[in-house]
Amino acid sequence: MSLDAVLARIDEALPQATDRLIDLLRIPSISTDPAFKADCDRAADWLVAELESLGFEASKRPTPGHPMVVAHAAGEGPHVLFYGHYDVQPVDPLNLWHRDPFDPAIEETAKGRVIRGRGASDDKGQLMTFIEACRAWKDVHGSLPGRITLFLEGEEESGSPSLVPFMKENAAELTADIALICDTGLFESKTPAIVTMLRGLMGEELTIRGADKDLHSGMYGGVAMNPIRVLARIIAGLHDDTGRITLPGFYDGVTELSDEIRAQWQNLAFDHARFLGDVGLSAPAGEQDRTPLEMIWSRPTCEVNGIWGGYTGDGFKTVLPSEAHAKISFRLVGQQDPNAIREAFRAYVEAQLPADCAVEFHGHGNSAAGQMQIDHPAFEQARQALSEEWGLAAAYVGCGGSIPIAGYFKTVLGMDAMLIGFGKDDDQIHSPNEKYDVESFHKGIRSWARVLEKVMG
Questions:
Q1: CA angle at residue 402 from 365 to 376, to 5 degrees?
Q2: Are 456 and 145 spatial neighbours (Cβ–Cβ below 8 Å)?
Q3: Cβ neighbours around 319 below 10 Å, total
Q4: CA-wise closest residue to 179 among 187, 169, 167, 190
Q5: Which GO terms describe its molecular function (predicted)?
Q6: In whole angstroms, how far apart are CA 379 and each of 149, 195, 384?
Q7: Is 347 within 8 Å of 256 (Cβ atoms)?
Q8: Span 252-263, pLDDT tens digits
Q9: Which domains does the chain show, CATH number per domain?
Q10: How far, in Å, CA of 29 to CA of 33, rounded?
Q11: What 8-state DSSP symbol labels residue 185?
């Protein structure tokens, strides 16, 4: 039987596939809130039942947190592992939703039909594109496409505390020839893409302390050191006038783009003016000798995510605060070492402290960047499959964010991952009124059928 028959089956069964997604979206599997623990369990059970109905050997695996779902299908040829997550973000602020976030529905919008509900795009809708592709294949051929493992997590939105221990304990079972991850999107909401670069992330919270109490600014101003002044100088010194980060050794391990990737990115004709204009900005603010796409996808950053101290309430209070605080994050690329950068940042701060001031650090997160080796034949096979489905040449792209699982597949299990997703820029993931376009869901299913046909041989 041909691929055409599978694609026809996907088209024919789209209403039933959408109903199944809506059933899954009704389960409020919010992983970060203990009040929803039973619902996370229920979502895992739902997935196990669906996968068993397709012929997978599926099971819910306990962890110290929320369960993993692991499923296997035997077969010949390459062994692929598919990863997705069934947990979702909290829904606050609830009053900004147009409908109950766990009462999903199909809505007609000016841009087409969408599936509205928490988790529609991140990541239940994306996860179900792969499962529905397997279902259509089974309906047409009577068997699944080949040797497939599914690995579905329930803690991605709450820091994945159980993920790495589970991967290490089950490495032999989970290791495959290549991993497939569906948690990304189309480039500029139209061009199919395979993410080959992910930035790492390292965060630091620091508190600068001065006097043992807030001081009257008339009595002590000018003679007592102000921790906010110290903190402001430290932060201002992290960048030079060209936008480069000043920490010693910060750029160690930062690699340059290959000519092939640079040319692909140039051909994307990224409209940075519109990208910035959509959020009320106009001028790129990073390294001035880099293109905007380079800055977003392949260059490291240092950003202040929060800063506070002293009196910030209504009115005015003339004090010298005893403490000043900031949260600072670093997005990392290439072979940058997050531990070395943490040490360099702390040493830089400590060297700037005047007498009578002390600092306390609290680390947040620590993951290296991921860079996939696109010489694996599956990458070009998948790129061809996506191009055929979407009618546009699929591109290898970077991602400004961090998806740690891709790096863990490499460091823990020794395999590369292809990140292929069908989300759009306006899906409002993590925000009120999250949605997933019906087109993304439909063509996402068709895309995975095409990818499986080429990769599984």
A1: 125
A2: yes
A3: 18
A4: 167
A5: metal ion binding; peptidase activity
A6: 18, 10, 9
A7: no
A8: 999 999 888 898
A9: 3-198+369-456 (3.40.630.10), 200-254+300-367 (3.30.70.360)
A10: 9
A11: B
